[in-house]
Amino acid sequence: MNLETVILGFLNMEPMSGYDLSKRIDSSVGFFWHATHPQIYGTLKKMIADGYVTFDHEIQESGPARKVYTITGEGKQFLLEQLPTIEPHLVKFPLLVTMFLGSELGLEFWRKALVDQIEEQEEMLQVYYTILKEIPKVGSSQDLGGYLRKRTLDFGIDYQKFFIKWLKHTLKEIKQ
After folding, report:
1. Phi/psi at 146 (nearest 5 deg)?
2. Residues 6+ apart with CB under 8 A from 138
3. 114-123 contacts: CB < 8 A, separation 24 or more?
4. Rounded to an integer, what distance in angstroms lies between the CA atom of residue 24 and that of residue 18?
5. Residue 63: strand, helix, or coil
6. Among the listed residues 41, 45, 40, 46, the one whose alpha carbon sits nearest the alpha carbon of residue 25
7. SS3 108
8. Whole-angstrom Cα distance, residue 45 to residue 59?
């Protein structure tokens, strides 16, 4: 999935500023699909030129006016063409590459690294649980969008549980 499709998907939900768009991405799909502020703003600029989004200046009580972006009909058509394109699931997992290549780092390094990873992943699991408490309960057919967003959160929770279990198992075996 490309960044244009992600941005258009969020703007299809509601118009928003680049800053709000970045925050929304970070607090939702950002847990499993990352985009930086410069990438987002660069893509917005390109999508304006392509006719996929427009913007209006919104006056604020304090500070300069902000740009609020809106998806166009052309942008919505592009979004609906792109969304069904599900790319193969390819994962870049730096920890696993380091483990695969890092036997020379020694046992003590790996014990500490695994303990640190367990703590980090448990914190992330708590973030997911906090989000779960804050989202409204959704039914499967009444609110398809809400249901599908909840299922992505369920995946994140299940993944974190599995990863923590795997890390603990690896740590236990390394300690022996």
Report:
1. -65, -40
2. 146, 147, 150
3. 114/167, 114/170, 114/171, 114/174, 115/171, 117/167, 118/164, 118/167, 118/168, 118/171, 121/160, 121/163, 121/164, 121/167, 122/164
4. 10
5. coil
6. 40
7. helix
8. 20
- Cβ count within 10 A of residue 87: 7
* Strand 16-17 relative to strand 53-58, pairing: unpaired
Question: In 3D, which of 78, 88, 90 has the Cα closest to residue 9?
Answer: 78
Q: How is domain 3-82 classified at the CATH fold level?
A: Arc Repressor Mutant, subunit A (1.10.10)
Q: Read off the pLDDT of residues 7-45 as tens digits, 9 standing for 90 and up.
A: 999 999 999 999 999 999 988 888 888 899 999 999 999
In the chain, what percentage of residues exceed pLDDT 90? 67
Structure tokens given for 37: 């502020």
CA distances from 121 to 10, 37, 150 (A): 27, 25, 20
CA distance 15 to 131: 23
> What is the C-alpha to C-alpha distance for residues 166 and 35, in angstroms, rounded to an integer?
28
Tens of pLDDT along 88-113? 777 778 899 999 999 999 999 999 99
